[in-house]
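Obj.: predict assembly geometry.
Materials: sequence records (below).
Method: joint structure prediction, all chains together.
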Amino acid sequence: MTVPYDCIIVANGSFPTTARPLELLHQTPIIIACDGAVQALYDRGLAPTAIIGDMDSIPLSLRELYADRIHIVENQEINDLTKSVFYAHEAGYKHILILGATGLREDHTLGNISLLLEHAPLFDRIEMLSDYGLFIPLTKTATLTSRPGQQISIFSMYPCGEISTEGLRWPIHNRKLTAWWQGTLNEALGDTFTITLTETARIIVFCASGK
Amino acid sequence: MTVPYDCIIVANGSFPTTARPLELLHQTPIIIACDGAVQALYDRGLAPTAIIGDMDSIPLSLRELYADRIHIVENQEINDLTKSVFYAHEAGYKHILILGATGLREDHTLGNISLLLEHAPLFDRIEMLSDYGLFIPLTKTATLTSRPGQQISIFSMYPCGEISTEGLRWPIHNRKLTAWWQGTLNEALGDTFTITLTETARIIVFCASGK
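Observations (raw structure tokens):
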């Protein structure tokens, strides 16, 4: 199996517990960890390539063990996840998966999901995986893979253009999604579906992991 | 102490584990439960006044125990939480708190948060509490209570007008928030703060429970 990402970033939210994100952690060559995720990685036998943050959430023993790979970034304007994303960009990685960016405080979850769209121009691919599903930012028309019956939700960011869909059970035609709930709980009909975006549309697609 | 709500609705997300939502469950006279929350309520010695949903998530023993208060609502277009909100509205309750509406699948979380604004016109007050904070929908200028240092995040819904703030550490002046992350991680300076909305602005305010 080809590993679909060249770099995983682990944020300070809920550490993943399901099989797929844990498999990917073991298969992906580079792990960049926000400081709050280092202990959870260590407990699973995983060593980060780089550790980013202000180091207030890492035990002293691990701080000493990993002294050669700690990068303290002082910038109150951006969170540790964003610092890690910039670090990955500067290091030249192109296919990024973010784990641990949801769960716990919901305002962090919302902020982290929306930041995917800000960071998308820096990479060939940047996605976010939780125990419940995969988040994909789209700034242009795309065809995505799916399982028949897979639950799909679409969230528009403001200012949003119009979107249309093909291959979803409840088709959307040239529509602006003006509230978060309007594009939720759709369903893939086959192995792929297509979302067409007008020029100003920017969306996040959520593909649920369960059926 | 006056109980601030006359009705609590418990949705199918993460059941609360922290003191404040559990206290409110014990103090509030009416509990409307989505079917997936009935077992968790029962385990804590709490009996719902009404149970809403398609009853695929309630054990048979509890379905029998509570046969007198089960309301099966067949409508594929709206989720169980929305069905419960409409039930509370029809029953005449005016001050609603929603619990268990976040956690687990993030697309449900996002949908449920945004539905607060849809439902706000039906009640004098409708808010959502999680283990991490309180969500308040605002469609007009308001002054909210706070603790000095309390973390506050503001999320605009599309189409958004402009907002301004008083009493927050990083003031916002006549600004459209065009991405979810832009209004996150602000902080209350004192016991209240004020958010001023232009006519078309519609926002969700998140007041974090921790300091």
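Conclusions so far: Chain B has a mean pLDDT of 94.
To do: check interface contacts against the pulldown list.
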